[in-house]
Amino acid sequence: MELGRAPRLFQRLICNNGADAVELLEHVATLTRQRAEALREHGTRKWSADSGQPFVLLVVDELADVIAYLPDHGLRKRANAALQSIVSQGRAPGVCVLGQLQDPRKTVIEFRHLFPTRIAMRLDEPEQVDMVLGDGVRDRGASAHEIDESTPGVAWVKLDGHREPQRARAFHSTDADLDELSAYVLAGQLDAPRALSRTETAA
Fold first, then answer.
1. Which residues, including other chains, have CB under 8 Å from residue 142's CB and lie 6 or more apart?
2. Thinking of the domain 1-114, which architecture would CATH place it in?
3. Which one of 136, 142, 156, 188 is least enclosed by Cβ atoms within 10 Å?
4. pTM assigned to the model
């Protein structure tokens, strides 16, 4: 629903979790493999902005709907295979997956360890913190289960290769912000969008 506010920011936007969504995942998985092969042929180890290829961002707003809750077993299996292929191979070819879900149990997502950056917003149970961020992270201070309801946007972040988690806070994007961003991207405005104030960016 939120992404539908600015559909033209995306090359393709699918608002259901059926066959069209799975076909898109498979398309991105194929693209990832083709890019990796092209990089190998050119002796390049990783994607860069100078490659002439755009960075690809795949946003899956409710990951569980596609990989766990699809009633069609065949589609569910295809979705899981495609996503695992992308997240395991996409970093070097410049393909990134932003996956969001509300239920972090292993029965829902078995390959969460393949996401190099994991973000935990407010969670219900202490055990869920380690589910999302990794074993032992809660003991190192990532208390996502203690985030107060009065502080929306607060989260704990765990980056691959970094032992310590980091506390962060996302700013709130209003409909007006999305409209302004769309106008800036699509109409070629010369002036950049309004800079956020310190109070809006403060954690």
1. 120, 129, 133, 156, 158, 165
2. 3-Layer(aba) Sandwich (3.40)
3. 188
4. 0.83
The domain limits of the chain are: 1-114, 116-184
Backbone angles phi, psi at 166, to 5 degrees: -125, 140
| DSSP state letters, the chain | --GGGSGGGSS----SSSHHHHHHHHHHHHHHHHHHHHHHHTT-SS--GGGSS--EEEEETTHHHHHTS-S-HHHHHHHHHHHHHHHHH-TTTTEEEEE--S---TTT-TTGGG-SEEEE-S-SSHHHHHHHH-TTTGGGT--GGG--TTSTTEEEEEETT-SS-EEEEPPPPPHHHHHHHHHHHHHT-SSPPPPPPHHHH--
* pLDDT tops 70 at residue 8: yes
pLDDT tens-digit readout, 22-70:
999 999 999 999 999 988 888 888 899 888 889 999 999 889 999 999 9
List the structure tokens of 33. Answer: 């493999």
